[in-house]
């Protein structure tokens, strides 16, 4: 079946600033990924990994320097294709409150996408009520202004707005950032319900691994703008093939004082894109680095059905993991 | 005759908050941000203050430094450092203590630094420490090449590095109490892990008390010895970290732990949520503030709540008591 979204070898360069302005800095390099109908794919990485740039590139908010974006099988190249994409795919922004215009009521805000796209709006009040009901907000909320909303409510309004055009794909940038644990659960449940009810597909951009485990069928891990691992979420979490993925999983603080980590999973920080390491770009922080990693860049290679990793030792790691699993 | 059992020495509280109530004047009435909060943190101990937004944890952290905003009014209680009530200290004396006796690390250290001065200059101005001592402290908090870092401006450092510098600045003052307000919230997971590691590591050499204020349950579990759980301006449960995470007694603590995505089995489908929302702090319900959202509320929850002590090191603010 044709995927809802298909990115092939997508690259984005940004101009450097100041005396570097003649340089083009590669922010995304050769990223390929697909989101099937009703599928939920998580894009994971630290700040500077290029995940938000990717979302912006898909929505046409960021010029690309190479590769293609196809929506439901058709290339999104020209204005026409972009307009079609923006009608059928919508974005949930990271800062929910800031993405809502402070002078407009919630009722106007949730129906605004139809106005922007010039679609018929015979009964805006009724549509607003329906959209608010879909995201579990009372109809009275339609008369409120964004500053009167709590973080969770603003996030719900963001979801309602994203749903107004009945999209087939929602790109959610850190959908639970800044929300309390109890509210996070509500937003995630809402997203899961919408997927089950209307077959919505999601591309979720996040660095929150707990969120990924709950909502994503597949996970794509980015490091310095390159895909370093991809695979079904369950498998990747059970047996990460790339040492970076393994470090991310190990670095997550566990809410259990009996499982405190004794030592540090990962040292150092993401290098600057101005100083990309030679060879494997992760070698400066890699716990299993070997000589070859310092000069030869590994390719993204298949490590199993539906799984890929960019590591010279990915296959070994995977076997080790299986070995481990069998012992238990 | 049996020899007298050695009595375990009662830890000396470095800082204690006693029956503290703080309100903010607002158009709709007084918002009661803190109500009758009592807590103590001892030398060498790491106390976690955990709760969701609006629970009063940041107000409490500010009160511990006597840094409450002008609109806040202390209606009762005290914050004592070695017996001295900080809240009643003359301004000049408080200023002398702040940073020296009680130091704070904020969520985003960018806002705590002056953007137009180098890190080295600021650390020297703040602390009066010699450049060599500053460099030694920077390397202590894991900054590679401290001399280079000292010559940099705050914006040239990454978020993780700024947080390390902020921690170094606080520690250079050798405070008796270090308060960290959401110290890892603005950081990536790998940097968060490193800051947790650093704070844990510091305990070997820092003999003051550490207070960690956060909404992140994982950070509390990784770092703290004792935990105070706050809800709607009150401390609803206090106890050793293991007891809080494995034998929580307050229904709110239990509900909060249950809905953390990090603990819920992903194959279970839906995540548990706490229905409803926190009460309006200007118009609190009579009795227990959590009762309207509590799954196990009783009729008596409409009446003032007693504080129980299921064990000497724990307290629970709930009608169900030690249940």
What does this entry look like structurally?
- The complex is a heterodimer of chains A (328) and B (323).
- Chain A is an alpha/beta fold.
- Chain A has a domain at 241-328.
- Chain A is built from 11 helices and 12 strands.
- Chain A has helices spanning 51-58, 79-88, 106-116, 124-134, 151-163, 181-198, 209-215, 233-238, 243-251, 291-295, 314-327, and strands at 5-15, 24-35, 40-44, 66-71, 74-75, 89-92, 169-173, 201-206, 218-223, 226-232, 301-304, 307-309.
- In chain A, the strands form 2 sheets. An 8-stranded mixed β-sheet of chain A has the order 6-7-8-3-9-10-12-11, with helices on both faces.
- The longest helix of chain A is centred in the middle third of the chain and has 18 residues, at 181-198.
- Chain A is globular and about 65 Å long.
- Chain B is globular and about 65 Å long.
- In chain B, the strands form 2 sheets. An 8-stranded mixed β-sheet of chain B has the order 6-7-8-3-9-10-12-11, sandwiched between helices. Chain B has a 4-stranded antiparallel β-sheet with strand order 2-1-4-5, with helices on one face.
- Chain B is built from 10 helices and 12 strands.
- The longest helix of chain B has 14 residues, at 159-172.
- By secondary structure, chain B is α/β, with parallel strands linked by helices.
- Helices cover 27% and strands 24% of the residues of chain B.
- Chain B has a domain at 13-101 and 175-239: P-loop containing nucleotide triphosphate hydrolases (Rossmann fold, 3-Layer(aba) Sandwich).
- Chain A binds chain B through residues 46-47, 150-152, 180-186, 188-189, 192, 207-211, 213-214, 233-234, 247-248, 251-258, 260-261, 263-267, 269-270, and chain B through 52-53, 158-161, 188-194, 196-197, 215-222, 224, 241-242, 245-246, 255-257, 259-264, 266, 269-274, 277.
